[in-house]
Protein backbone atom coordinates (compact mmCIF):
# COMPACT_ATOMS: atom_id res chain seq x y z
CA UNK A 1 0.00 0.00 0.00
CA UNK A 2 1.46 3.36 -0.96
CA UNK A 3 2.22 5.93 1.71
CA UNK A 4 -0.43 8.47 0.67
CA UNK A 5 -3.20 5.90 0.70
CA UNK A 6 -2.08 4.63 4.12
CA UNK A 7 -2.00 8.16 5.53
CA UNK A 8 -5.50 8.88 4.17
CA UNK A 9 -6.85 5.72 5.78
CA UNK A 10 -5.21 6.57 9.10
CA UNK A 11 -6.46 10.15 8.98
CA UNK A 12 -9.97 8.87 8.29
CA UNK A 13 -9.61 6.49 11.23
CA UNK A 14 -8.72 9.34 13.57
CA UNK A 15 -11.43 11.73 12.37
CA UNK A 16 -13.39 11.07 15.54
CA UNK A 17 -10.51 12.51 17.57
CA UNK A 18 -9.58 15.35 15.25
CA UNK A 19 -10.82 18.89 15.73
CA UNK A 20 -11.01 19.52 12.01
CA UNK A 21 -7.69 21.02 10.92
CA UNK A 22 -6.16 19.83 7.71
CA UNK A 23 -2.49 18.84 7.98
CA UNK A 24 -0.23 21.74 7.04
CA UNK A 25 -2.90 24.40 7.64
CA UNK A 26 -2.05 27.44 9.74
CA UNK A 27 -4.25 26.23 12.59
CA UNK A 28 -2.62 22.81 12.51
CA UNK A 29 0.86 24.38 12.57
CA UNK A 30 -0.08 26.58 15.55
CA UNK A 31 -1.44 23.59 17.43
CA UNK A 32 1.61 21.48 16.52
CA UNK A 33 3.88 24.29 17.74
CA UNK A 34 1.97 24.44 21.00
CA UNK A 35 2.35 20.67 21.47
CA UNK A 36 6.07 20.84 20.61
CA UNK A 37 6.55 23.52 23.29
CA UNK A 38 4.68 21.33 25.76
CA UNK A 39 7.00 18.43 25.01
CA UNK A 40 10.10 20.60 25.43
CA UNK A 41 8.62 22.19 28.55
CA UNK A 42 8.33 18.76 30.17
CA UNK A 43 12.15 18.52 30.34
CA UNK A 44 15.01 20.66 31.61
CA UNK A 45 15.79 23.45 29.16
CA UNK A 46 19.51 22.65 29.08
CA UNK A 47 18.83 19.23 27.52
CA UNK A 48 18.09 20.75 24.12
CA UNK A 49 21.12 22.03 22.24
CA UNK A 50 18.99 24.66 20.50
CA UNK A 51 15.40 24.79 21.83
CA UNK A 52 14.14 26.80 18.83
CA UNK A 53 15.43 24.22 16.34
CA UNK A 54 13.98 21.41 18.44
CA UNK A 55 10.57 23.08 18.63
CA UNK A 56 10.60 23.78 14.88
CA UNK A 57 11.48 20.16 14.06
CA UNK A 58 8.82 18.75 16.38
CA UNK A 59 6.28 21.28 15.05
CA UNK A 60 6.86 20.19 11.47
CA UNK A 61 6.71 16.55 12.52
CA UNK A 62 3.46 16.90 14.47
CA UNK A 63 1.83 18.95 11.70
CA UNK A 64 1.95 15.82 9.50
CA UNK A 65 -0.28 13.85 11.87
CA UNK A 66 -3.88 14.28 13.01
CA UNK A 67 -4.14 16.91 15.74
CA UNK A 68 -5.20 14.45 18.42
CA UNK A 69 -1.84 12.66 18.13
CA UNK A 70 0.01 15.79 19.24
CA UNK A 71 -2.35 16.10 22.20
CA UNK A 72 -1.78 12.46 23.17
CA UNK A 73 2.00 12.81 22.83
CA UNK A 74 1.99 15.72 25.28
CA UNK A 75 -0.01 13.84 27.90
CA UNK A 76 2.27 13.62 30.96
CA UNK A 77 1.04 10.13 31.87
CA UNK A 78 1.02 8.26 28.55
CA UNK A 79 2.85 10.68 26.23
CA UNK A 80 6.56 11.09 25.58
CA UNK A 81 7.17 12.83 28.92
CA UNK A 82 5.81 9.79 30.72
CA UNK A 83 8.04 7.39 28.75
CA UNK A 84 11.39 9.14 28.31
CA UNK A 85 13.55 10.34 31.19
CA UNK A 86 15.58 12.55 28.89
CA UNK A 87 14.48 14.82 26.07
CA UNK A 88 13.42 12.53 23.20
CA UNK A 89 14.96 12.92 19.79
CA UNK A 90 12.82 13.85 16.82
CA UNK A 91 12.96 10.25 15.62
CA UNK A 92 11.71 9.00 19.00
CA UNK A 93 8.79 11.42 18.86
CA UNK A 94 8.12 10.23 15.30
CA UNK A 95 8.13 6.59 16.44
CA UNK A 96 5.59 7.41 19.15
CA UNK A 97 3.42 9.32 16.66
CA UNK A 98 3.59 6.40 14.21
CA UNK A 99 2.64 3.99 17.00
CA UNK A 100 -0.40 6.09 17.92
CA UNK A 101 -1.39 6.49 14.27
CA UNK A 102 -1.13 2.73 13.68
CA UNK A 103 -3.18 2.11 16.83
CA UNK A 104 -5.89 4.44 15.51
CA UNK A 105 -5.83 2.65 12.16
CA UNK A 106 -6.18 -0.78 13.81
CA UNK A 107 -9.03 0.48 16.00
CA UNK A 108 -10.86 1.84 12.95
CA UNK A 109 -10.32 -1.42 11.07
CA UNK A 110 -11.73 -3.31 14.06
CA UNK A 111 -14.77 -1.00 14.22
CA UNK A 112 -15.32 -1.43 10.47
CA UNK A 113 -15.05 -5.21 10.79
CA UNK A 114 -17.55 -5.32 13.64
CA UNK A 115 -19.93 -3.03 11.73
CA UNK A 116 -19.64 -5.27 8.65
CA UNK A 117 -20.34 -8.36 10.77
CA UNK A 118 -23.46 -6.77 12.24
CA UNK A 119 -24.63 -5.74 8.76
CA UNK A 120 -24.08 -9.28 7.47
CA UNK A 121 -25.94 -10.69 10.47
CA UNK A 122 -28.88 -8.35 9.84
CA UNK A 123 -28.88 -9.31 6.16
CA UNK A 124 -28.86 -13.01 7.03
CA UNK A 125 -31.66 -12.57 9.59
CA UNK A 126 -33.77 -10.70 7.04
CA UNK A 127 -33.15 -13.40 4.46
CA UNK A 128 -33.94 -16.13 7.01
CA UNK A 129 -37.36 -14.60 7.60
CA UNK A 130 -38.07 -14.62 3.87
CA UNK A 131 -36.59 -18.00 2.90
CA UNK A 132 -34.96 -19.61 5.94
CA UNK A 133 -33.91 -23.03 4.63
CA UNK A 134 -33.08 -22.05 1.07
CA UNK A 135 -30.98 -19.13 2.25
CA UNK A 136 -28.99 -21.27 4.69
CA UNK A 137 -28.30 -23.88 2.02
CA UNK A 138 -27.10 -21.17 -0.38
CA UNK A 139 -24.88 -19.56 2.26
CA UNK A 140 -23.41 -22.93 3.28
CA UNK A 141 -22.69 -23.79 -0.37
CA UNK A 142 -21.06 -20.39 -0.95
CA UNK A 143 -18.86 -20.73 2.14
CA UNK A 144 -17.84 -24.28 1.23
CA UNK A 145 -16.92 -23.20 -2.30
CA UNK A 146 -14.82 -20.32 -0.96
CA UNK A 147 -13.05 -22.65 1.48
CA UNK A 148 -12.44 -25.25 -1.22
CA UNK A 149 -10.68 -22.52 -3.18
CA UNK A 150 -8.29 -22.17 -0.23
CA UNK A 151 -7.47 -25.88 -0.12
CA UNK A 152 -10.02 -27.12 2.43
CA UNK A 153 -11.71 -30.48 1.92
CA UNK A 154 -15.05 -31.63 3.25
CA UNK A 155 -16.15 -35.17 4.06
CA UNK A 156 -18.59 -35.30 1.15
CA UNK A 157 -15.68 -34.48 -1.18
CA UNK A 158 -13.78 -37.64 -0.19
CA UNK A 159 -16.34 -40.29 0.82
CA UNK A 160 -18.06 -42.58 -1.63
CA UNK A 161 -21.56 -41.81 -2.69
CA UNK A 162 -24.17 -43.48 -0.49
CA UNK A 163 -25.79 -46.54 -1.96
CA UNK A 164 -28.88 -48.13 -0.50
CA UNK A 165 -28.48 -51.52 1.22
CA UNK A 166 -28.97 -54.47 -1.04
CA UNK A 167 -30.02 -57.89 0.14
CA UNK A 168 -27.70 -60.53 -1.30
CA UNK A 169 -28.91 -63.85 -2.61
CA UNK A 170 -27.49 -67.12 -1.30
CA UNK A 171 -25.46 -67.62 -4.47
CA UNK A 172 -23.93 -64.15 -4.16
CA UNK A 173 -22.96 -64.81 -0.53
CA UNK A 174 -21.41 -68.17 -1.42
CA UNK A 175 -19.48 -66.54 -4.25
CA UNK A 176 -18.22 -63.83 -1.99
CA UNK A 177 -17.42 -65.79 1.20
CA UNK A 178 -17.32 -69.43 0.13
CA UNK A 179 -18.84 -72.49 1.85
CA UNK A 180 -18.96 -72.78 5.61
CA UNK A 181 -16.35 -75.15 7.04
Description:
With 181 residues, this protein is mainly α. The chain has one domain. The chain is 67% helix and 0% strand. The chain has nine helices and no strands. It has helices at 3-13, 26-41, 51-62, 67-73, 80-83, 90-130, 132-149, 155-158, 170-177. The longest helix has 41 residues, at 90-130. Residues 13-21 have low confidence and may be disordered.
Outline: elongated
Structural class: mainly alpha
Question: How much helix is in the residues?
Answer: 55-70%
Number of domains: 1
Fold topology:
Layout: H1 3-13, H2 26-41, H3 51-62, H4 67-73, H5 80-83, H6 90-130, H7 132-149, H8 155-158, H9 170-177
Helix pairs in contact: 1-6, 2-3, 2-4, 3-6, 4-6, 6-7
Quick description:
The protein has one domain (about 1-180). It has about 180 residues and is an all-alpha fold.
What are the salient characteristics of this protein?
181 residues, single chain, 9 helices, mainly alpha
Amino acid sequence: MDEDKRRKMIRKASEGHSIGFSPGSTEAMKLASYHAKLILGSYRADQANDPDVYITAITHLLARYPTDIGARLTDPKDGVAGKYKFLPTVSEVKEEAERLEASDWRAEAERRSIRDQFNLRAEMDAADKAEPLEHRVKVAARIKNELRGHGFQFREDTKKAWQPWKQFSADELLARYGKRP
